Amino acid sequence: MSTAVSAYERLRAAHLHTVQAALIDHIGRLDWSREEIERHQTHRLRALLGYAKERSTFHSSRLSDIDPATATVADLASVPMMTKQDAQNEWDSIVTVNDLDRAQAERILAEQQWFSYTPGDEQIFSSGGSSGVRGVYVWDWNYYVSAACLAWRVQAREELRTQGNGPARLAVLAAGTPPHASTPLFDVPTAAGMETAVIPVGVPFDEILAAVAAAQPTHMVGYASVIGRLARAASAGELKISPVRVSTNSEPLLDEDRQAIRDAWSVPVHNLWGSTEIGVQAVGCARGEGLHVCEDEVVLERVDENGMPVGPDEPAVRTLATGLANRTFPFIRYDLGDQVTWLPDPCPCGSAFARVADIGGRRDDDFQYGTITVPASAFRYVLGTDPRVSEYQVTQTVGGADILTVGSPDITTLTAAVVTALRAQGLSDPAIRIQITDRLRRHEATGKLRRFVPLPSQG
Ligand SMILES: [Zn+2]
């Protein structure tokens, strides 16, 4: 093991102990009343606004009409929306610590051999995200602790209640490598003595299947589509495992995948809605429908297209999120770009945390080449994390793909990287053509971009 990796592992072990300690507090919060939730949320909001106004040049002008001493969620309406472009273009004036800027964050991403911590205990992540626009993010020590607790506290409470039988093993189906935040976020034991095994998903499905069979997990966490596919394999007799709990993330959980998981294993499914910017916005309790909003650490606002809040019965065009735990890179009234529907009725689980319906939206299309399926993620891992690609669109061809990129990538290097990623999926000699363009053509009515365009004639 290299020196850098072992230094990372030692700090990470310390970090995970911080998470385990904080989980006890977080499990207690799950029983809070509305009043307790709102009191905590208001204090956290005032703390964030006061800090951001003092330490972030970007936010200090945006927050000029806000008095952090008395601010409430309703007062956020006077603050402009923050877009993904704002966050990436204004990086250096948003970040609140002196010893970190965008150039240095890019350098860390380019030079690190594995996940790493800065001397200031920050982790730098990058993601193409669902929008396909590349982002660079900084997670400070406490923000990671918050996000990990939000991701796992519901499941951890269930583990305490059931006191499972025998050793627990968590299979973590995630990118497995930097620069994505998903592996550190989900590779977290939630029961005493639980072991974890990270299974990278950027390989052919047969290899994922074999790795999961070998791990014999009692618990699984990962991409909704991958776990759905594993469930179908189990029902077909191709995978013999006996999980007791499943957590899904990173993609919409489609009904067909939820049903496949139910058919295969009849286990509770905790679906998670998160983002690298905010961490974790909401998590399913596996008792009632939808997801419980993590209101103690996140403020969600339903707004119209101009960012003005709408009433509970009025349709919302956008959902703005304010992350209360991210002090180093504050996101305040950030447009997540997801469509969210609130569920007004109390949840059968008894929680006082508000609920939203499962996050909709369609998943990126997989590309089918004969018998080989190449998931959109194979392209996204490469194109979404190249620092010189700001946006891209992938169109399937008979033997490969035509790719349009906005930015200034090194075409030769990028082409080679995409070819390598597709070979890993079992496509032996993919034909990849990459071109640079000024802008991508969006759907005229919705303004949305179809990022992955499969060949039309698929059976
Ligand atoms: Zn519930």
Automatic annotation (TrEMBL):
Keywords, sorted A to Z: Ligase
Keyword Ligase: yes
Domain of life assignment: Bacteria
Keyword Ligase: yes
InterPro entries to which the protein is assigned, alphabetical: ANL_N_sf, CapK_Type1_Caps_Biosynth
Record-level Gene Ontology MF annotations: ligase activity
PANTHER family: CAPSULAR POLYSACCHARIDE BIOSYNTHESIS PROTEIN
Protein name, as recorded: Phenylacetate--CoA ligase family protein
Originating organism: Antrihabitans stalactiti
